[in-house]
Design a protein that fits this description.
277 residues, alpha/beta, seven-stranded mixed β-sheet, two-stranded parallel sheet, 9 strands, 38% helix, globular
Amino acid sequence: MSRNMKLLGAVAAALIGFFLLWQNVLNRPDKLALSPLSYSDFASWSVVPKEAPPAVWQAGWNIDVFLIDQAAELSARTGAQLDKREQQARLQGRSLEDAFSKLGTVYAPLFREEARNDDLTRAFQLYLKQQNRGRAFVIVAGAPVPSGILDMLRSDAILRARFGGFYVLETDDLTPANALEASGVDAGVTTGAAYCDAHLVDDGTCIVPLQVSKSHGLLTLAENSGLGADPAGPFLAWLESNAQKIAEPLGDLEEVEIIDIRRPGDTDERRDDSDDN
């Protein structure tokens, strides 16, 4: 009897194992194919200000925070999972928005797992074109900064002039050493010299590590994170003394048609004859 019970137990365990394998691996649905996000739509951002901050030509220097949040990475196998992932991204974004409120206004895009470099780069480009309006900005990295954004910083001196550096949310997977995904393209893997102006590199503030903690399942800054009581102050002071503000755009000029007004009988032929005489 004992032997039969053991046999039945082994068979039951094998059936349970096969059921779990079937449910979680063999019969697991593929990940959803997500459509490209439209960053002109505020729904494609986990955090975006309700009211746009004033432009630099209106109110002087202010700082924006472009947040690359690992929780904003969208990947799911069902619609319900996707909704839950998006909700969590917005909760996490608001938590970090509060944490960085003394530094600046937070912009945090959602992005697809399978297209993170493309999505984040497009979001950054649209942010600069439509939302930044000449203000200074920093990048908070809760995940590696994609190569597309780093390429823009490395190649655009005017953009770097109002860039205040990288703030890295240190975790087991993310450190200042691996936060720059394209590090090694140029010098400055640990100092960020390829992406920051000299004053940030010299001050050691191009890449700032920040300690984080978890509260109610959400990542936030630790009590002694390293952000400081007035993180915006030194950068704003430097901008005021050294950086040139972008002028207000004039807008699109309408094309003007120039019409040659002549008197009756004033033809090209008569003008040619007059010139010959």
